[in-house]
Amino acid sequence: MNFDHVFDELEIRTEPFAICELRGSCNLGLGRDASTTLHYILSGEGEIALRSRAPFKVSRGSLVLIPALQSHALRSFGAAGDPVPECKPAALNLGHLMSTSDCGEDGRLIALCSHVDVGLRGVTDIIDLIREPLVENVSSPSRLGSSLQALLHEISNPSIGSRAMIRALLKQCMIEMLRKRLAGANTALHWMAALTDPTIWNALRVMLDSPGDNHTVESLADSVHMSRAAFAKRFANAYGSGPMELLRDLRMRRAATLLRDTDLPIKRIAEMVGFTSRSAFSRAFEAKTGQPPRTFRTSLLIK
């Protein structure tokens, strides 16, 4: 399947927000974010642990994309790794998230953390279609290996334009990750296949633009002039799940963004994402994130 025209139209935006540094054998809880998060491991060895999921190992050069609302923690094994220059997050206006071992070990795990957004044809939330973490392990020499060296240089020697350069390098890494996974027919990228089907794309766009509307399988099928059965089968073949399952995820992610970015009452947010009952919304949100909406909002405020 040819994805060139999709890549030509993708608008990938990255916003680095922190350097995570773990000294010794220790954990750093990163919680759940309303945005999709990219972690690039600059040094060290460890693993990322996710809720209800087996942890996966990371090391220097690992590029990890965590979907929105997935609680996770970064864990350092405390192993001595390749020497890296000292990062200077303050000079780049990045946060510095630190965890230190009580064991006195000096092995460090360092990660650059960024929020990611992907737009297409006027829709800004395409990245929300990713449901599974993506992990790419960079082997050197490679395109991503060269990007890693360039990132290390910018982080340790910040100057005019360094933050913009870091964003550009992370965007390059995202494109490389996506196209490598597509070349390997990775099932986590079913959503990219859906983008190549004009009919399914039109239905996806309706849900992405207005997740709070009263959508049903019938109404979505009508919007693309298909029968219910034919639409449901074509959608599942292209995307990998039914439209209502995707819609539930999109509503929870939109709610998380509203909880983070606004002070709207929870009842109003529930209405905006398609719930007539605040209690039903709260139950659905907690089932998805492990936290009630109010607790989720509070946890974001105290970070």
If you had to describe this structure to a student in words, what would you say it looks like?
Helices cover 42% and strands 24% of the residues. It is α+β, with helices and mostly antiparallel strands and 303 residues long. The chain is globular, with a radius of gyration of 20 Å. The strands form 2 sheets. A 6-stranded mixed β-sheet has the order 8-1-9-3-6-10. A 4-stranded antiparallel β-sheet has the order 2-7-4-5, with no helix packed on it. Helix 2 (143-156) runs antiparallel to helix 3 (162-183) and helix 6 crosses helix 7. Strand 4 (45-50) and strand 5 (53-59) form a beta hairpin. The protein contains 11 helices and 10 strands. The chain has helices spanning 4-9, 143-156, 162-183, 190-195, 198-209, 217-223, 228-239, 243-261, 266-272, 278-289, 293-301, and strands at 11-23, 25-31, 36-43, 45-50, 53-59, 62-66, 72-77, 95-100, 108-119, 134-137.
